[in-house]
Amino acid sequence: MSSSNNGASSSGLSKTEAEAKVMAETITVSDAKNSLPQPKGQEAASIKDDLEDKKADAQLGSGAKDQEVFFVKDENKVTKELDKSISQKATIYFKGCKDGNYTISARAVKIMIEACQRCTFNFKGRIYTNTIEAWKTVDLTLNIMNDQVKTLQADMSSRMTVQFDTRDSLHSLVWSGVNDLKVKFEDEPTFVHTTGFEQMKQLYAPQELSFSVDQFTTRIVEKEITTEQIVRLANGYPTTEREAKQFDNQQELNAKRAEEFIRNKLKENGITLGSKGIPKKEAGRNEPCPCGSGKKNKKCCNK
């Protein structure tokens, strides 16, 4: 008996069981070179199931035990359609599939894609939460053929292509730790928007970005597709620097308009706001009034 067989026997497991146990305890990470450990027979699958189900529950979040989930796991070179025979109350969860082509015409609560490689997904059916999540993927193509996806979230992935039918169908693509992300539109065959972590490092230099922490959003802004870094306001609300500046400027403008409106209304009733009993700032009669009304001093507070 070889030394490797002796090691397996001493632990009370056959060689196949020992290999399966090692595989089950290995954290699956997307591998562009397709060098991940593979299941070895039914023993490997049975040992692996409990661990994967626990991981799936963690990804599904609170209330996972009460959720209906339709799993598509570890398929290789499969082409098929998931039709309306699937419960519309289910979350459809793809995990560990390779070289597949899937058309999802079923209605679903949500779509989740984990650790799939070289797969194409065609989305035709309604998604009730309008959400697709994909992570730890390599060479993924997502064809979104309707306006059913409001949020597409991608994390820790390489070489992802997302094609929408039109620009109107791109609402919010939120991503972190993605390299080589391409966005296309079916009605614009020659257009490609390429982004990813490397592009963001150049755009936001000299700021040091974190591959696994910093988030970005790709969407249409003023009819142009744009990728921006997501920042958190003091209250934790996610936004972008551009939106935060726009919000501050609008707030300041609104405050000025409100003040002007109040002053005008008071003045219509013979009241000058903030002038009684308060020394006036010195100003010539032809200079702008210190109250900020924009009128000359002689036609405003210094009549």
Automatic annotation (TrEMBL):
Gene3D superfamilies: 2.160.20.70. SUPFAM superfamilies: C-terminal domain of adenylylcyclase associated protein, Sec-C motif. Residues 28-52, 272-303 are annotated as: Disordered. Pfam families: SEC-C (PF02810). InterPro entries: CAP/MinC_C, CAP_C_sf, SEC_C_motif. Residues 28-37 have a biased composition (Polar residues). This is Adenylate cyclase-associated CAP C-terminal domain-containing protein. It comes from Cavenderia fasciculata (Slime mold).
